[in-house]
Design brief:
Elements (H helix, E strand, L loop, with lengths): L3 E9 L5 E10 L4 E5 L6 H9 L6 E6 L2 E2 L10 E4 L11 H11 L4 H14 L15 H13 L5 E5 L7 H18 L2 E6 L2 H7 L2 E6 L2 E6 L1 H6 L4 H6 L6 E8 L2 E4 L2 E4 L2 H6 L10 E6 L4 E3 L9 E12 L4 E5 L23 E5 L10 E6 L5 E3 L9
Family: Belongs to the ABC transporter superfamily.
Organism: Devosia nitrariae
Pfam families: ABC_tran, OB_MalK
């Protein structure tokens, strides 16, 4: 086991396209770190540079105390788990798991011992003599994990290993991977585009956008204290509702609506007072809006908006609302909504709501949980 340190890591391809910009952070020994972001953000490229499958244009990469920029992948003492499983179809489960040990010249008795141990941990013992074609997707992924485990590496690197599985199996497998990593205590980097996976699996999460580090923190801190508009919108499902607004003393003007902000907001965000008389971006998470007619409104502000769509999901109801304020694109600050239309806000409502499309809803908004961002830098206001 070992820590992994990235110091001003850059990746520039032959056409001078910068894929990774100055990544600098440390993954602690035994930590489960998740790289997350939209497609093309550079998360897999960063992982492949750690693995040695991509060259580093500049910067320094350490695994443990050793600089590995020019060390071959096979000599980095890491094990990689791929999206495609990469199993040999003509070999049995036992032979697939044992393959890296045979290539390393490990004695036969030790190979058998390690393979049997990995099979026991992954509940594959009764499948050891089967071929991959006879296994389910989840079982194949376990075999790929077993092949990584038997090497006893300093670090596991996992590149979207669950993306080929159905939704139910993904939930099951992500819990199994976390349990396995906790029991082995091996430093792990896990790449995913799924923010739910990132939030439920990682000790810490690295959020990337266009090859740049946006924030690195615990899942809870990413949710409650996002560094900027992009992180705020990317973390959380449904995404945070973002609108242009203005502040007049303690009154937040959101389109035709006014929300009087409580003292607690200014106590937790002392810089917010300086925005009085100025525009800003306000963020409202869907779970901080509810039907004022069915919820306890103490501590909540009340606004109104037309309902455009209601999605009843059983335990909760998603209500889409036409808030009459300029909508903010989380990824593109210059985005213009075609035809002057506004994106609808989404509220995660109690299933007791009786609202229907076409109603004008009375909305209870948790003012203390609002998020605020500078419209120029797009960074959070604290």
């Amino acid at each position: 086991m070992a820590s992994i340190q990235l110091d001003r890591i850059n990746k520039v391809y032959g056409d001078r396209y910068p894929a990774i910009h100055d990544l600098s952070f440390e993954i602690e020994d035994g930590e489960f770190m998740v790289f997350v972001g939209p497609s093309g953000c550079g998360k897999s490229t960063a992982l492949r540079m750690v693995a040695g499958l991509e060259t580093i244009s500049s910067g320094e990469l350490k695994i443990g105390d050793k600089v590995v920029n020019n060390v071959d992948p096979k000599d980095r003492d890491i094990a990689m788990v791929f999206q495609s499983y990469a199993l040999y179809p003509h070999k049995t489960v036992r032979e697939n798991i044992a393959f890296p040990l045979r290539m390393a010249g490990v004695p036969k008795d030790e190979i058998n011992e390690r393979v049997n141990e990995a099979a026991r941990i992954l509940e594959l013992t009764r499948h050891l003599d089967r071929k991959p074609a006879k296994l389910s997707g989840g079982q194949r992924q376990r075999v790929a994990m077993g092949r990584a485990i038997v090497r006893r590496p300093q670090a596991f690197l996992m590149d979207e290993p669950l993306s080929n599985l159905d939704a139910k199996l993904r939930v099951q497998m992500r819990a199994e991977i976390v349990k396995l990593q906790r029991s082995l205590g091996v430093t792990t980097i896990y790449v995913t585009h799924d923010q739910v996976e990132a939030m439920t699996m990682g000790d810490r999460v690295t959020v990337l956008k266009a090859g740049r580090l946006q924030q690195i923190d615990t899942p809870q801190n990413l949710y409650t204290r996002p560094a900027n508009v992009f992180v705020a919108a990317f973390i959380g499902s449904p995404s945070m509702n973002l609108y242009e607004a203005s502040l007049d003393g303690v009154d937040l003007r959101l389109g035709s609506q006014v929300i009087t902000l409580p003292d607690a907001i200014f106590a937790s965000r002392p810089s917010l007072r300086a925005y009085s008389g100025r525009k800003l971006i306000v963020g409202i998470r869907p779970e901080d809006i509810d039907d004022a007619d069915v919820t306890d409104k103490r501590g909540y502000a009340e606004i109104a908006a037309p309902v455009t769509l209601v999605e009843a999901l059983g335990a909760e109801t998603m209500v889409h609302l036409a808030v009459d304020a300029p909508w903010v694109d989380a990824e593109d600050p210059d985005a213009v909504v075609e035809g002057g239309a506004q994106r609808t806000a989404v509220g995660r409502f109690s299933p007791r709501t009786q609202l229907r499309a076409g109603d004008r809803a009375r909305l209870a908004v948790s003012a203390e949980n609002l998020h605020f961002f500078d419209p120029n830098t797009r960074n959070s206001i604290w």
